[in-house]
Amino acid sequence: MFTKACPLKCKWCQNPESQKGKAEVAFYSENCEDCRKCIDVCPVGAIDKITKISDYSTCTACGACIDICTKDARRMIGQKMNEIDILKELLKDVDFYDDSDGGVTFSGGEPLINPEFLNGILRSLKKNKIHINIETSGQFDFEKIVDLLPYIDLIYFDIKHLDKQMHKKYTGITNTTILSNFEKLNHIYKNVQVRIPLIPGVNDSIEDIELFCNYLQENGHTTTHLLPYHSMGNSKAIRIDHNTEIFKVKPHSKGEIEKIKYQFSNFGITPITYD
Fold this sequence. Notes:
About 35% of the residues lie in helices and about 15% in strands. By secondary structure, the chain is α/β, with parallel strands linked by helices. The protein has 2 domains: about 25-75, Alpha-Beta Plaits, CATH 3.30.70; about 90-270, Aldolase class I (TIM Barrel, Alpha-Beta Barrel).
């Protein structure tokens, strides 16, 4: 389950549609046949008469343009759901969870910025013996999430950079709270697994890798999940805001990834990657 709203604004974000904590309308220009009906029905005049691109500072995501479009050129991203509706949706797949030894993963955005809302959902899922995984950026109020821990089976904790200023440059905030939360969580909760997004030219130097490995070892970790950068987030970003600054870097080659994995291993950390 993807939640919307994230306190970070990573330049390489793979899920830019989850950054804002509100519904948004995505525009798929390749489907548009220029009928211009969406322009006529927009109650706030947010759609440009020439480009058909929405002014997202004006758009209220009322859905009128989506309802009138017969070509699926406009789609709603996000919807408000209460606890009951979410549980109904998640429990539909309980047989699949049982058969596959799977469960529910909460991602985002940042799911832990709404701990009070999440609490009831996690309790109900646990009553149904469903495995629960949380994917977090680490930017949350630690004291408010402690009560959630008995209901969580696994936490994937992202660490993006160990240099405070570099972290702020590329994510919009420093890593002070994130690292503090990781260290506190690491002391009271055993099922934390670190993930590192590998961003070319940002956190993949030999110096960066050594710092990552030293930090992980200092905190009792011998493995980490490596998430190689890919550019698929760019195409999603421009659908919801054409003024988005595109993050232009070339993804690592397979050979480069193998070299980075070797470097992690050489510093004593076993890297985990996914094909």
